[in-house]
Each structure stands twice: as structure tokens, then as C-alpha cells.
Amino acid sequence: MRLAVTTYSAPAWTIDEHARVAREIGCDGLEIRMLAGQPLTPDLPAAERRRIADVVADAGLEICVVGSDCRLAQPAEPRTSEVDRTAGFIELAREWGAPVVRVFGGAQSADAPRAEADAWVAEGLRAAAEHAAPHGIHVALETHDVFNSAVRVGGIVRAAAHPNAAVVWDLGHPHRAGESVAQAWAAIGPFVVHVHVKDIVRTDDEREWESVVAGRGEVPIAEMLGVLRRAGYGGYLSTEWEPRDARAGGGRKAALAQHAAHLRGILETA
Fold first, then answer.
1. Per-residue pLDDT at 187 exceeds 50
2. Nearest to 129 by CA among 90, 94, 97, 168
3. 127 close to 83: Cβ distance less than 8 angstroms
4. Alpha-carbon distance 212 to 209, whole Å?
5. Which pLDDT score is estimated for 202?
6. What whole-number distance in Å separates Cα of residue 259 and Cα of residue 183?
7. By C-alpha distance, which of 173, 169, 233 is closest to 196?
8. Are strands 62-71 and 29-32 parallel, antiparallel or unpaired?
9. Mind listing the domains of the chain with CATH numbers?
10. How distant, in Å, are the alpha carbons of 122, 136, 198, 266 from that of 263?
11. Is the pTM value of this prediction over 0.90?
């Protein structure tokens, strides 16, 4: 397993800052989502695409994931629009040699039955995977938002029934949903192509959670890495730092370095 860092952890940083920090804290990959305060979009100018690729390569890194903001369960949009946007991100991933494009389920309409929402996401995921297949790219649905249950996401990917439909496993969200590591892995294990690692604790308001440095929260990170190791997972572990308090911004590099060191320590002692 190799370490990466997502640019979402420091959304205001430039690609140069992200590449430098990722290299300094011992990562091999970079997951691109936010740059210089702006979300990544498929209409990124060609010159900027090339510059990003060059900066990452010069730092000895690889772009392991293109983090799209596509939400396949958006009922307010035509069903094809988010798939078309995903195709744009797939093209960006192809140019950068990235093997994974991340997508979300998104928000479920209040009047849409769960089965209908799941079928909608599965249909969109299958269509996007068909775009990605000729390039050897996986379109991976993240365990996130109302689709935070690994059991639910696993059912959707099975319904998509496409070899390029996959999962980004963010254990923090299934953990919040009350699912154990074993339950999550049983549901999505065959489909996991990328992993997000963060630690969180419940706040005084038991409905809310906040980020903490790795090892000081409630997420069973060591158990998760043990499951991945036994399964022979050889992909990336992408560290995330999502403090709610903007004043924590000055400590982002230190927090990411601590996350990387914590993960490395678990892997080296396993």
C-alpha cells in the first residue's frame, strides 16, 4: 500500500504547494480535488492541465485519483448531465494517467424511494464506467453523504454490473453510520480501488463529528489497514484532514505529516 494526500485537505494551496508537501511527508501519490481555492473542473485549460502534470511528475509523484464533484443521484438535473460531466473528468484522468475518477451519490430527493435513488445512481455509474473502460479507468463511488453506508454502496455497484464501476472506501462515513470494518469490507471489498483515511470524534452535539489527528479519534484505522493487508490491497491510502475550524489552516501541513506517519507506523509494525 502506498500513501497519497488529497488536495481537498488544503483547498487553498496551489499545485506546487501540494506537490512539495506530499513529497516532504513521504507520499507517492496526489489525489486532485481542489487547487488554489477552486474545485477541479473538466474545462481546465490545456496549458494548466499540462503544467499540473509536469509539477506532479517533477516531484516524483503520480496523480492517483481525479476527484470529481459529480453527483449521480441529483434528481433536479437531467439524468445524462452528471454522466456527461463525469466523462469530462475521465478525459482529464486519461491525460494525467490517473487510474480512478471519484464520484458521489449525492443528495437523495425527499420524495424519492431509496430503491429508486439507488437504481438511478447504479444506472449513472454503469454509463460512466462504459466511458472509462476503453482507457482502463475506474469510476469509483465514494462512501459519502446520504450514501455513507458501505452496504448501500456495495449494492449499487453490484447493480451497476460493470467491471470499471468501483468504490472509494472512506471508512469515516460508514463508521458514522454504525457499520463495522468487517461489515463494510464484506459489502464493498471486491470493488475497492482507493481508500480515504481520516479520524473523527463525536462532538458535544452527538449528531455532529469533527476531524482530529490520526489515532486520536474513533475510527478503527489499524483494523481497516489490517483488513486491507490481508486482502492484498495494493492501492493508495489517501490521507484527509477536514477541520471545521478555519483557524486550523496553519497546521494543515503538520496534520498531514502526522497522518502519513501514523499510517506508515501501522503498516511497518503489522
1. yes
2. 90
3. yes
4. 10
5. 83
6. 24
7. 169
8. parallel
9. 2-194 (3.20.20.150)
10. 32, 28, 10, 5
11. yes
